[in-house]
Amino acid sequence: MSEALQLPIIDLSSPDRLSTANSIRQACIDHGFFYLVNHGVEEELLKKVFEQSSKFFSLPIEDKMKFAKKNHRGYTAPYAEKLDTTSLSTKGDFKESFYIGPLADHLNQWPLQEDLPSWRSTMETYYKKVLSAGTKLISLIALALKLDEDFFEKVGALNEPLAFTRILHYPGDLESSSEEIYGASAHSDYGMITLLVTDGVPGLQVCREKSKQPQVWEDVPSMSGAFIVNIGDMMERWTNFLFRSTLHRVPPPGQERYSVMIHPFLFTSIVVSCVIRTHVVKNNSLHIIYGKFNYVRNVLLNVLFTLASFTLR
Which residue has the higher pLDDT, 86 or 77? Predict the structure, then answer.
């Protein structure tokens, strides 16, 4: 039985930005996860997002497969993705997903308005609202790193961000199997940050010390109206491993569960250089002083999303 983890609560509307930034810094060092409240996304909109999600995933499989994922947008069926590349299971994760990418490139797939009249408008509004909240959060993360709050803007991190929303449905009625099957198997996120909201059904677990064995998993309770924010691999590298990209998973929930996540900041063409040059990580004799990582748009998309198709948020 996993223990419940008490995550820090970050108020995005707080006028005391330095205090908030310090709280974010400690949360990212200790947990790599925190709750975000007063983020500007209305609870009524969140309710509509889950209502529309339910309507889509309730469609017959043949109707959903009309939107099969292409250009990294659209529908993926249960077992189509597996996040844990080390898993010996021959089956993928027991969830279905719908991907929505940047709105300006016109590559998204949208259900017909006559079938789901409010789907597109709801999801587009949600996308824009969460991207705005993520932009505000990024400036606080810069302050948390003792940088100017517009640091990431100045280096181009906010120029045409490749923000992707994933709408997730865990059916709950898992068929009998001799293999260990997860809703989402153990993984860390590959981007900068992730903002997640759930329908309140429990399921998310984190492992703060991913290199230790046996791994200790802790439950992350849902908080009504709050986003659960976690640090991704890119931010972990950018901070020279000061902030942690924490391993997380969703066991088979045993009941139907919905969640929506957005990775607001993947990048088009930017050099990702460690912004902390003196932090040293000592882990299994590994010493990391400084590093540079080039993430170019085409390489990032081709590599990360090819991996996502087979091993994958």
Answer: 77
pLDDT for the residue numbered 2: 63
Segment holding 237, helix H or strand E: helix 233-238
**Distant-in-sequence, close-in-space partners of 51: CB < 8 Å, separation ≥ 6:** none
The half-sphere exposure of 13 on its side-chain side, counting CA atoms within 13 A, is 6
Alpha-carbon gap, residue 21 to 108, rounded angstroms: 35
Query: In sequence order, what are the beta bridge partners of 79?
Result: none
- Mean pLDDT, the chain, whole residue set: 84
Longest dimension (CA), the chain: 60
DSSP state, 70?
Answer: B
Q: What residues contact 176, with CB distance under 8 A and at least 6 apart?
A: none
Phi, psi of 204 (to 5 degrees): -70, 135
Beta carbons within 10 angstroms of residue 64's beta carbon:
19
Q: In terms of C-beta distances under 8 Å and separation of at least 24 residues, what long-range contacts does 13-22 make, across chains too?
A: 13/38, 13/39, 13/40, 14/38, 17/140, 17/143, 17/149, 18/143, 20/140, 21/140, 21/141, 21/143, 21/144, 22/144
Cα 252 to Cα 269: distance, rounded to the nearest angstrom: 38
Q: How many CB atoms lie within 10 A of CB 222?
A: 20
What tens digit of pLDDT does each residue of 157-191 get? 777 778 899 999 999 877 766 678 899 999 999 88
